[in-house]
Write a structure and sequence with these properties.
Elements: H1 5-11, H2 13-26, H3 41-44, H4 52-72, H5 79-85, H6 89-110, H7 115-135, H8 146-165, H9 173-189
Amino acid sequence: MSLSMSAARTLGPTTVRRTLQTARRSRRVPRACHHLGPRCDSDSKGDTEPCSLHRRNLLQLVASSVITADLAWPANTFAEDASASTLPKDYLKLAPKLVDAVLESLDVQDAGAGEFEVRKVADNAKPLVREFMSRWKDDRRVVGETSHDEITESIRILADFYLRNGQRTALPRATVDSVRGHLMTAKEALPEPEKKNFLGF
């Protein structure tokens, strides 16, 4: 509340002082509860017990936040990890080796290595490819998995190219990029290998 100078002269100093004191008292904020939030009506009347209303409100707020966070958590957060953990161990052992071997052969060719060197590195991948196609290509336990389908597609692209152009023909850039893209997608879909401790277990 504010008073103009003319009003102050009219009312006099004593009246002005009392008016200002009354205004300050009316604008005071209630004291805080012993625990949480502003004091309720019972506290303002001298009750020394904490206001339970604020405590209940806080508990409800916390419970609501927990429930909301739980509902907002993506339903498929652990779906991929759970799916990967159920894949056959032999498949999880072979697939990363195959991916790395074929990627290495592509890298050697990109580096400009000679035909002998390229074929030598590619020969390391051939038994892995044969095992994958004979054992896992149509296995229902892995068909539909991202890693399986991407590896299968990369092998199909390479087989189609060599069938049309011969085994000794260098892969063109478009084919290399396509195969590498499928293999990288497969690699990302595979679970991380378990790390062994310093004893090798």
